[in-house]
């Protein structure tokens, strides 16, 4: 282990000066535009970019420190967007954003995602056990409008009917799906935006959303309908809840880097990490759209518990692979840089 760390330290020591120089130029170009750079800086920047890209390839090949790999991925992505982003057609730019930038941005907030998940699950568990112990707690966590008849005192048959009824005809499901997308996106983006308030409101929003879910599970579990409620939720919930957790994590990342800016000033840290967090929120918009379609169409038209679980778990696996996969860096295979 000591050999691995010393190798990583030496690798970084030999090249860190160039990376820091590139980071300073990228930050200046992001702040004032690439044309604000002097001719000398503009000439130097591509060479520093290629050197950082080469360093990234080596770091990946010999499995150096993950934080170092993440740092270089982020740095080379920012530099790449300055060089080529304005030259690419909108469609190609969007594909590049979703294929490379969004997954990298998500991996960069692993710590915050762990925190947001823990806070959400704490809300689930607290509400679940409180409501299970005393049903009077139910409306503390679930508003009467959201409960919509699902409340303590309802029979098992009444609760089960909600899980398998259709909310409308097939012709009206597109309107329903649009409403769900709008509502879910609003909740997620609010969790992201509240990060600017040092993350405290974000944590509360995550906890309260988890508590609502926990209270519902306690209600259905008490009537031996926990598995059925799980199928009703999982078909869209794996996508929707993951998106909310990611938005919350992005908000917490903004708060963390504002409070602990490191070598940058607070405004520079906010500008840099705010852009990275915004990439995560942008990717979540696509997830909320998928969740709205699954909830508006899939959950209403598919009433088999097994099918619901299969679809929900399949989407969870898909998102996991998407965010975990490390695509080749731009120009790393020599194709995109040939333009």
Structural description of this entry:
This protein is mostly helical. The chain has 2 domains: 2-87; 110-324, no CATH class. It is 78% helix and 0% strand. It is elongated. The model is unreliable at 168-172 and 331-339 (pLDDT under 50).
Order of helices and strands: HHHHHHHHHHHHH
Estimate the mean pLDDT confidence: 82
Query: Beta fraction of the residues?
Result: under 5%
The strand count comes to 0
Total separate domains? 2
**Radius of gyration, CA atoms, in whole angstroms:** 23 Å
Distance between the termini: 42 Å
Structure annotation, total helices: 13
- What kind of assembly state do the chains in view correspond to? single chain
Overall geometry comes to: elongated
Alpha-beta classification:
mainly alpha
Largest sheet: none
Low-confidence stretches: 168-172, 331-339
Helix content: over 70%
């Amino acid at each position: 282990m000591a050999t691995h760390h010393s190798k990583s330290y030496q690798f970084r020591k030999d090249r860190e000066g160039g990376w820091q120089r590139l980071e300073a130029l990228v930050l200046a170009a992001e702040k004032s535009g690439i044309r604000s750079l002097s001719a000398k800086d503009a000439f130097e920047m591509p060479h520093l970019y290629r050197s950082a890209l080469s360093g990234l390839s080596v770091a990946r090949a010999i499995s150096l420190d993950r934080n170092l790999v993440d740092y270089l991925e982020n740095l080379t992505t920012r530099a790449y967007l300055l060089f080529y982003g304005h030259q690419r057609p909108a469609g190609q730019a969007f594909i590049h954003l979703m294929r490379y930038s969004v997954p990298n941005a998500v991996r960069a907030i692993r710590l915050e995602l762990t925190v947001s998940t823990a806070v959400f699950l704490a809300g689930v568990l607290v509400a679940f056990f409180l409501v299970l112990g005393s049903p009077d707690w139910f409306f503390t966590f679930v508003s009467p409008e959201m409960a919509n008849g699902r409340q303590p005192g309802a029979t098992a048959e009444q609760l089960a009917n909600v899980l398998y009824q259709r909310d409308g005809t097939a012709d009206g499901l597109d309107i329903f799906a649009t409403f769900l997308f709008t509502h879910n996106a609003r909740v997620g983006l609010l969790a992201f935006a509240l990060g600017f308030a040092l993350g405290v409101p974000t944590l509360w929003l995550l906890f309260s959303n988890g508590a609502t879910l926990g209270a519902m599970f306690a209600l259905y579990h008490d009537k031996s309908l926990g598995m059925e409620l799980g199928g009703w939720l999982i078909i869209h919930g794996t996508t929707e809840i993951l998106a909310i957790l990611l938005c919350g994590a992005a908000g917490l990342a903004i708060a963390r880097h504002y409070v602990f800016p490191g070598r940058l000033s607070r405004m520079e840290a906010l500008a840099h990490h705010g852009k990275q967090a915004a990439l995560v929120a942008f990717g979540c918009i696509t997830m909320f759209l998928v969740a709205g379609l699954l909830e508006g169409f899939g959950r209403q038209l598919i009433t088999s518990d097994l099918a619901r679980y299969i679809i929900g778990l399949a989407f969870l696996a898909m998102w996991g692979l998407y965010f975990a996969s490390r695509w080749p860096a731009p120009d790393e295979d020599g194709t995109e840089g040939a333009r």
